[in-house]
């Protein structure tokens, strides 16, 4: 029907308006994420799509910030396997999160404090900082960590570099 995109947008907005802060129950944010994605999948060319894309980015920022808070808590507490699990999920699912470089840094630090079999995962996280977040404040320190471990330092991704310059 002609009204279907508008109806889906209104359902998305219902959940969006009921979202709480990142440190609260994420149920409404998850529902808003689901409904906004549904609109973009079913009606990608509707007049609501551009606004819903931005709204979806805001929703994902809230969800990612909640995961970051939990990962930071576990990291600070010294529970590195729990921190690594939270931060790995965060960096995999929300690569556009505003603190993704910081999350990768804490992820690498968590893996580096775990048994030696996790050292490759720490190297992978430091490499992702250098490759995907080249203008980050952590990029230089990540290169230093890779040099200290005598690992290859990856080249910055040109698309990621352009995105960071734009933002």
Task: Note down, in words, how this protein is organized.
It is a single chain. With 167 residues, the protein is an all-alpha fold. The protein is built from eight helices and no strands. α1 runs antiparallel to α2, α5 packs antiparallel against α6 and α6 packs antiparallel against α7. The chain is globular and about 60 Å long.
In a few lines, what is going on in this structure?
This protein is an all-alpha fold. The protein has helices at 4-17, 27-42, 49-77, 80-93, 100-112, 119-132, 139-148, 158-166. Helix content is 71%, strand content 0%.
Topology at a glance:
Layout: H1 4-17, H2 27-42, H3 49-77, H4 80-93, H5 100-112, H6 119-132, H7 139-148, H8 158-166
Major beta sheet, specifics?
none
Structural class: mainly alpha
What is the 3D shape? globular
Strand element count: 0
Helix amount? over 70%
- What is the averaged pLDDT score? 93
**Which series of helices and strands comes N to C?**
HHHHHHHH
Strand content: under 5%
Low-confidence stretches: none
Q: Tally the helices.
A: 8
Distance between the termini: 37 Å
**Rg, alpha carbons:** 18 Å
